[in-house]
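To whoever picks this up:

The parser on our side crashed when reading a file containing two proteins. I've narrowed it down to the boundary between the first structure block and the second sequence. Both blocks are reproduced below exactly, byte for byte. First block:
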Amino acid sequence: MKQLLTSFLLILMSVSAFAQWATDADYSLSVDYKKYTNLKKAGVAGIVVFGTTWLAGNVVCVVEQNRYANDRWDGESAEEYARLSHEAKQQQAYKVGETMEIVGFLGAGVSAFLTSRYGKKARKIRDSLGNEVASLGLDLGPTGALLRLTF
């Protein structure tokens, strides 16, 4: 009986050596976290590139409209200048600038959406990993051994 009790006590004491703890996961090593972080960075780069394109298209439109109207204006009538400015909007160079504006605006919008979406997903992974889920342990106290399961 003494050997059985000693064997049981040794087995019970070794449980703490095999206690299962949730590992402290490094969220930066997660494949999904890396993917979402890279997509977020690509979105930020897209905002910069497409925002610059949008601004450059606006500059092209203004410069071409003013160049066209100033080259053809006789300097006398404001109505004539307004008509030439409106006519400049039909020219090919102005339409190229207008296309740049549209592409830049749409690209910046999509990039901002992607940055927001994948940034939230990466933050969710970062915040969820590394939390202790459950633990199993053994405590020895004055009243005896205690097997503890914590969630």
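<<boundary where parser fails>>
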Amino acid sequence: MKHIIDGREVDIDWEQVEIVDNHGSGCVDWMVKGEGDDGKVYWGDGNYQDDELIDVIEIETEEHLLNF
């Protein structure tokens, strides 16, 4: 999935890590982790509908989270 991060387009291959919230009707929020085509590791909140990734918000680099 492509995202604009710091003004650059980054393609991130997301993986589900942990369920955050199950809204029912096939809508589930997951904590997701993925590696971008820039070689960085990212974390975010992914929204899935019927097991399909719809959107990822609050994307942070792993480096930023470790230094937080």
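After patching the parser it read the second block fine. The mean pLDDT is 93. The longest helix spans residues 62-66.
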